[in-house]
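F.,

This is the one I mentioned.
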C-alpha cells in the first residue's frame, strides 16, 4: 500500500488566529490528563525512545501500540528521509505483505490539541480512513501538517524523548537518486535503516 506525505511546493501563508474569547464559567473543557506510553525503537543506527500521548490521541496511540505488541515493526525499516525547512523527516512502517491492521480514521490535531512540532511522531495517511502503520518523525516544526478546515493534516501522537541524534543520523543517511515514485523519488534510503525491535518501555 502506498502511503504518502504530501508537501506543497509553496505553503500558503497562515493568518494569525483571532484572540480567543474566554469561555463562560461552567463549560470549560477539561484538559486531558497526561497518559504517556513509552516505546523504544532499536535500529541499526541506535535507539529511539518515544513518549506516545494516549491521553490526547488515544485512537492513534492504540493503533501504533497494536503493531508494537504484535511485533510487526520488528525487522521493518525506516525507508524514507528528506530535508524540509531547517530540518527534515524520516518515515518508516510495516511494508511486509499481510501485516496490516484495518485502517483507522485520522485523529486530527484539531481533535487532540497536539501539533506537528520538532521531534513529533505522526502517522502518515492518504486521506480519511487510510491510516495504517506508516509513521514519520520530524526534526523541525511543520505547522502546515496540522489540521485546518477541511484539510485533515497528519495525526501527531507523541514525541522523541531519547535518541534525537539517532533520528538525525537516519535523516543524514544516503538515499537512492532513482528509487521512489512521484514526490518520493530521491528520498528512499539506500540501504533502509532496519528497525530491529520495537517494544514498550516500563515507567
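My design for it:
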Amino acid at each position: 500500500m502506498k502511503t504518502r506525505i504530501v508537501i506543497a511546493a509553496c505553503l500558503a501563508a497562515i493568518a494569525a488566529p483571532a484572540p480567543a474569547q474566554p469561555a463562560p464559567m461552567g463549560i470549560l473543557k477539561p484538559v486531558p490528563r497526561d497518559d504517556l506510553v513509552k516505546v523504544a525503537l532499536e535500529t541499526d543506527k541506535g535507539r529511539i525512545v518515544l513518549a506516545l500521548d494516549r491521553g490526547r490521541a488515544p485512537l492513534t496511540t492504540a493503533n501504533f501500540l497494536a503493531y508494537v505488541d504484535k511485533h510487526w515493526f520488528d525487522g521493518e525499516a525506516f525507508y524514507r528521509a528528506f530535508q524540509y525547512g531547517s530540518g527534515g523527516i524520516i518515515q518508516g512502517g510495516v511494508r511486509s505483505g499481510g501485516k496490516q491492521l484495518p485502517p483507522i480514521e485520522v485523529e486530527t490535531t484539531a481533535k487532540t490539541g497536539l501539533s506537528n512540532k520538532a521531534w513529533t511522531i505522526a502517522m502518515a495517511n492518504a486521506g480519511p480512513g487510510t491510516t495504517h502503520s506508516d509513521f514519520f518523525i520530524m526534526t523541525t516544526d511543520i505547522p502546515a501538517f496540522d489540521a485546518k478546515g477541511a484539510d485533515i493534516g497528519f495525526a501527531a501522537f507523541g514525541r522523541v524523548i531519547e535518541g534525537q541524534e539517532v533520528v538525525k543520523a537516519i535523516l543524514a543517511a544516503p538515499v537512492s537518486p532513482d528509487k521512489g515514485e512521484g514526490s518520493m523519488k530521491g528520498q528512499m534510503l539506500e540501504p533502509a535503516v532496519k528497525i530491529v525491535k520495537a517494544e514498550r518501555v516500563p515507567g
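The CA atoms of residues 1 and 97 lie 9 Å apart.

Talk soon.
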